[in-house]
Amino acid sequence: MPAFLEAEFWSLANPELWVGAGLVIFLAILWMAGAFKMAAAGLDAKASKIKEDLDEAARIRAEAEALLADINRQRAEADAQAKAMIEAAEAHAKRLAEEAKVKLAEDLATRTRMAEAKIEAAQAEAAAQVKSAAIDLAARATETVLAQRLASAKSDPLVDRAIGQLAAKLQ
User: Fold this and answer.
1) pTM of the model
2) Three-state secondary structure along the chain?
């Protein structure tokens, strides 16, 4: 049950009565001063400002959606152009690769022939150098062997034998 319906609520010693009376008097003063009208006008102004902001947001959203659609269209066009460019580049690259393979095969054949000719010339030169070195080595070895035999023996056994055979042949 509400307290203001009881008899002790209306007693002048009850502080709740005075709080209620003070509140009613305060609200009456505010009403007479026009505070409620000012609060209502402030709320109306705030509501109109919010409405303007919402209208502006709706306009900006419509512009953003139009801009997004335009950007999507431009992106689709750019994707199509990029795809066409990639296809053209791939075809060009294939053509260049085929041309490069043909040229590489020709260059390889030419270089192979040149290398074979150089190898044959180098082999002939090496064989000639080996023969020359072998002849020089044999001549030096013969010279060394003969020099050692002559130096080690007072008489050469080959010469002695040849002399001995001479005597038999002369008779």
Assistant:
1) 0.38
2) CCHHHCHHHHCCCCHHHHHHHHHHHHHHHHHHHCHHHHHHHHHHHHHHHHHHHHHHHHHHHHHHHHHHHHHHHHHHHHHHHHHHHHHHHHHHHHHHHHHHHHHHHHHHHHHHHHHHHHHHHHHHHHHHHHHHHHHHHHHHHHHHHHHHHHHHCCCCHHHHHHHHHHHHHHC
